[in-house]
Design a protein that fits this description.
Layout: E1 30-35, H1 37-40, H2 50-65, E2 69-74, H3 77-100, H4 116-136, E3 142-147, H5 150-153, H6 155-170, E4 174-179, H7 205-214, E5 219-224, E6 244-245, H8 265-278, E7 282-287, H9 297-302, E8 309-311, H10 321-337, H11 340-356, H12 358-375, H13 380-386, H14 390-406, E9 414-421, E10 424-432, E11 435-440, H15 446-457, E12 460-465, H16 470-484, E13 493-495, H17 502-505, E14 514-518, H18 521-530, E15 544-548, H19 554-566, E16 575-581, H20 588-599, E17 603-606, H21 608-612, E18 632-638, H22 641-651, E19 656-660, H23 664-673, E20 678-681, E21 700-702, E22 710-712, E23 718-725, E24 745-746
Parallel strand pairs: 1-2, 1-5, 2-4, 3-4, 5-7, 6-8, 11-12, 11-14, 12-13, 15-16, 15-19, 16-18, 17-18, 19-20
Antiparallel strand pairs: 7-8, 9-10, 9-24, 10-23, 21-22
């Protein structure tokens, strides 16, 4: 078989360093895509996987048209040729048998073993014609290059090959390279190459690696029929996909059998990848056969997404995010097994540390604020959220102490007890959810809040903060781990500091049980789209309304509108739309509200109906479904309370909505009809907060309709399990012929009962 002997070929001087991180792959200019035999061939090993090949061609064409230089190292000539020769042989046999033996003998026809070189000779032209036809659809020209081992050992041939490839790339042509299987020696006998239905495909792994180094390629993408490199054979119980593989890690790998076709195997791929890496080419081994990802696997890799196994020479200083998750889960189980008083002690310790270390915290926050202001990348609302103060830290500490008290009544609480039958009792008890992932932007005060809630509920926690708050997050996480260490569970809360993309974190569906986003509506929507297999708790927008009814008190209306909009306009519970009853237009109530908003420098946008009443109106609103997050709001006019409710249902986000009225009947109708997580009467929308509700802290406000809704505190981070205690009971005991009967008697549960 064709093989470039890595040990014998002298390594050229490296053309440069390989990329250290996946995020840098976007910079790759020259790329080789190696298509393994299992990717190119059909499952029956006879013929090509045309749909799969078409999607790969589309991605290569897209990258080529972006200005990159693309090359393909492909298998498939033998498979394509085998299909053609088989058809010819069957056709020939059928004609002969029809002439000599009659139609009744056709069923006995058999296909002889086909010699691989003959198959390659018959299939190579057809394979190239197929590539050419596919790339023509994208106005891209291709060129065929067939090589043998001698082309790399003969210096003149090697230089000619190099020159040809460079000239093709210069002319924006995609070279399609394959071994000249029609003339290479036969493969070494191997058990997986025996039999009629198996194709002998040559090893293109070392060819791709050799070409990558020879052509000073930035990235080599090796597509196979597995997700990447595993630490043990794929399919075994403990096999784990390796995200990043480093030189020297070979001893930790146990290789399995080779694929259904091909003679390279994973061990050959790893050796070739490491050789290319030494030569300055980054390498990724990924799955090119999975129908869920084939259509975007190549472009995802180039965009830096976590796909397959990335070969890197730069080992990170700390653990990978997968290792952090495992550490958190392990320590989280210990945390959940602590006594409620011990978890409360950890939270109180964290509260004390926030006050004791406030100077260090504020200094770190000052660095983040100065950097954010200098770079100018953050909007004013985000800078406001980034800022910490002594008052904020004091408020955090108070909330944490409040939470510590309520945490004593959390994990292991008995919710229900049932006597199923004599000596058979069932309990429903509260338990932690598992591993939480909280992703937050700008708000470092979120870190101690959600950490305390995770501790109180016995959950492991992964935190991913924005880089704009990295200094503040780092010191707050250190203090959190210091508090956790008093009971030996410091690893239960981990801060992800690697270059993990949010989308990649959302794919850890086998490791993370719940995602809680804290940030902009755009962030929340992105996470909800990316988290296919993990539940997401949160709200995408905070479009909160305050409705001023015709029976409203002027003083209450002024205070509530001012507080709802101006107290903290960047908050998700700040008012964004002010609805005013039509009867209040051109009255002192309306005039005073407008004057107050102008005094507070609130920019007013007029809704369509409000604008129609004015000769000179403020700028008309672009959308009635806008979250400003700043000193801006929309004002719209409605004819009645019912119209206000309809407006809220149409344009709101089911977060928090308020009515200001002295009419109790109107207020109660509003409270019952508005389908939002929080609905208030004569009180500011800013009360929609876990601390103000007495929850101590919150992980966020959920507008979902299942599990938890509104400010989510301790209760929202617990789930339940059922515990059944019997004495050898079986279901057969309760059949018609059995001796036992179901009782299903509810047993009173005293308040504060714990399992």
């Amino acid at each position: 078989a064709f093989q470039v002997s890595i040990s014998l070929v002298s390594l050229p001087r490296p053309h440069g360093k390989s990329f250290a991180h996946r995020s840098e792959l976007k910079q790759a200019k020259r790329i080789v895509v190696k298509l393994g035999s299992a990717v190119v061939t059909r499952g029956d090993e006879c013929g090509l996987a045309l749909g799969r090949l078409a999607s790969i061609v589309e991605q290569v064409a897209m990258l080529q048209n972006q200005g990159r230089e693309m090359m393909i190292v492909t298998s498939g000539a033998v498979a394509f040729g085998k299909q053609r020769l088989r058809h010819e042989i069957l056709l020939s046999q059928s004609v002969r048998q029809a002439l000599h033996s009659g139609q009744n003998q056709l069923k006995d026809m058999s296909v002889p073993v086909l010699e691989a070189r003959a198959c390659a000779a018959a299939g190579q032209s057809g394979l190239m014609a197929l590539y050419e036809a596919m790339f023509t659809q994208y106005s891209i020209c291709t060129a065929q290059i067939l090589v043998t081992n001698l082309d790399f050992h003969d210096e003149q041939k090697r230089r000619n090959l190099n020159s040809t490839l460079h000239e093709l790339l210069r002319m924006n042509i995609v070279p399609i390279i394959n071994t000249n299987d029609a003339v290479v020696p036969p493969p070494v006998p191997n058990s997986d190459l025996q039999g009629v239905n198996v194709i002998s495909i040559k090893d293109n792994d070392s060819l791709a690696a050799r070409l990558a180094v020879e052509m000073k390629v930035d990235l080599l993408i090796a597509l196979s029929d597995v997700q990447g490199l595993y630490d043990s054979p794929p399919g075994t119980d403990d096999a784990k996909l390796i995200d990043i593989f480093y030189p020297g890690d070979q001893q930790s790998i146990t290789y399995g059998t080779k694929s259904r076709v091909g003679i390279g195997g994973m061990e050959a791929k790893v050796k070739a990848a490491l050789w290319a890496l030494q030569g300055g080419t980054s390498v990724i081994i990924a799955n090119g056969t999975d129908p869920k990802v084939t259509g975007h696997v190549i472009t995802d890799i180039v965009e830096g997404k976590k796909v397959g196994t990335f070969f890197s020479e730069v080992k990170p200083a700390g653990p990978t995010v997968e290792q952090q998750t495992e550490m958190a889960r392990h320590a989280g189980r210990t945390l959940a097994s602590l006594l409620p008083e011990q978890r409360a002690e950890i939270i109180c310790c964290l509260a004390e540390l926030l006050i004791e270390k406030k100077e260090e915290i504020l200094n770190a926050n000052k660095k983040d604020m100065e950097l954010a202001t200098t770079l100018g990348r953050l909007s004013q609302p985000l800078i406001n959220r980034l800022s910490l103060s002594t008052a904020k830290l004091n408020s955090l500490a108070i909330g944490l102490r409040q939470l510590a008290v309520s945490s004593r009544n959390s994990v292991g609480r008995v919710l229900r007890r049932t006597r199923v039958a004599n000596n058979l009792e069932l309990e429903q008890i509260t338990v932690p959810i598992g591993v939480l992932l909280v992703i937050f932007e700008s708000r470092p005060d979120c870190l101690p809040q959600v950490s305390a809630l995770a501790i109180a509920s016995g959950n492991a926690l992964l935190l991913k903060g924005g880089k704009e708050a990295s200094n503040t997050n780092k010191i707050l996480h250190q203090l959190t781990q210091e508090a956790l260490s008093i009971h030996g569970v410091a690893d239960a809360i981990q801060l992800v500091s690697t270059r993990e993309e949010v989308e990649d974190l959302c794919r850890l569906d086998k490791m993370i049980d719940l995602i809680i986003p804290r940030g902009s509506s755009q962030l929340v929507r992105e996470i909800q789209r990316a988290a296919k297999g993990i539940p997401v708790l949160g709200h995408s927008e905070g479009i909160c309304h305050v409705y001023i009814d015709s029976d409203a008190s002027i003083d209450k209306a002024l205070d509530i509108v001012k507080d709802s909009k101006c107290d903290y306009p960047a908050a998700c519970n700040a008012m964004e739309t002010l609805l005013i009853h039509r009867d209040l237009l051109r009255t002192p109530v309306f005039d005073q509200i407008i004057d107050m908003l102008r005094t507070e420098q609130v920019k007013i946008h007029a809704g369509p109906r409000f604008a129609s009443y004015l000769t000179f109106s403020p700028s008309e609103v672009k959308s009635l479904r806008t979250e400003y997050g700043d000193l801006e709001c929309c004002i719209e006019v409605v004819d009645s309370m019912q119209e206000a409710v309809d407006h809220i249902h149409k344009y709101g986000s089911s977060h928090t909505d308020v009515i200001v009225t002295e009419n109790e009947e109107t207020a109660e109708q509003f409270l019952q009809q508005v389908d939002s997580a929080c609905v208030f009467w004569n009180s500011s929308s800013r009360f929609a907060d876990g601390y103000r509700f007495g929850l101590g802290a919150e992980v966020g406000i959920s507008t979902a309709r299942i599990h938890a809704r509104g400010p989510v505190g301790l209760e929202g981070l617990l789930t339940t399990k059922w515990v059944l205690r019997g004495e050898g009971h079986t279901v057969a005991d309760f059949s018609e012929q059995g001796s036992m009967k179901y009782l299903h008697e509810n047993i009173p549960v005293p308040q504060g009962s714990f399992n």
